[in-house]
Amino acid sequence: MENNSQKSIISAIIIAGVLIAGAILLKGSSAPQNPKTTTGNGIPVTTATLAPVAKKDRILGNPQAKVTLIMYEDFQCPFCAAVTGIEINSPSMKPVMDYLRKNDPTWTPFMPEIINNYVKNGEVLLVYRDFTFLGPESVKASEAARCAGDQGKFWEYHDYLYSHHGGENKGNFADLKLKSFAKELNLDNSIFDKCLDSNKYTEAVKDSNKEGSAAGVTGTPKGFILKDGKIAGTINGAEPLSTVKPKIDAVLK
């Protein structure tokens, strides 16, 4: 029974991954989701309509960095969790990691390296944007993260969500759970609860989804690498560090 159950879980994950456009990247495949042109210095530039970085964005790093990495994510997306490197060795992540490493045995998450060696030294600005296409709990999780951001803890809450995800719309990100996460992170719960209950950020999350769609986002994770405000590269799904790092390095030159 256990083997059958595990097979069912893996099959479900694989099917979901296929439906999540761009969420799984097969080894050696780096086809972009958007048309490309090339600048005079040979840097590929997509023709997507991407909203410029603004005050409303959740950012990490130096706003004056040479390169900006905009990531569209869904907190219920297991492949988004995988690229962050958070809890990738947990039992709940095993089917996802098995699938990714079946296609690429050397697969490793790119986000820890990008944050530690590019964001922290001021070379790359990281921007998080919502693309909540997996259901109502994705929307509420994104609203909750924004509420945490009101108290200066967006990124802490971001990480906590990824370490506690599991299944789509099964109650893991129900309102009571989201409020308990805030308590665990020592947020002021009266302020947080009021923010979440008032639907303060419902429209903002919808707007982010619309902007993502306008940029050609169809699934998560999806990244845009910008230089001088222009798209100079993309991250298409759960790419490994081995393909993302060269893209960042090329744009930094």
Commentary on this structure:
The protein is α+β, with helices and mostly antiparallel strands and 253 residues long. The protein has one domain (2-252): 3-Layer(aba) Sandwich (Glutaredoxin), CATH 3.40.30. It has 10 helices and 7 strands. The protein has a 5-stranded mixed sheet. It starts with a helix and ends with a helix.
The CATH architecture can be named as 3-Layer(aba) Sandwich
Structural class estimated from helices and strands? alpha+beta
State mean pLDDT (0 to 100 scale): 86
Query: Can you list the strand order of the major beta sheet?
Result: 3-5-4-6-7
> What's the order of the H and E elements?
HEEEEHHHEHHHHHEEH
Beta-strand level of the residues, as a percent range?
5-15%
Q: Globular, elongated, flat, extended or rod-shaped: what is the shape?
A: globular
Strand and helix map with partners:
Layout: H1 2-19, E1 36-38, E2 44-46, E3 58-60, E4 67-73, H2 78-84, H3 94-103, H4 111-119, E5 124-130, H5 136-149, H6 154-163, H7 175-184, H8 189-197, H9 202-214, E6 222-227, E7 230-236, H10 241-252
Parallel strand pairs: 4-5
Antiparallel strand pairs: 1-2, 3-5, 4-6, 6-7
Tag the structure with descriptive keywords:
single chain; Glutaredoxin; alpha+beta; 14% strand; globular; 253 residues
In short:
This protein is 44% helix and 14% strand.
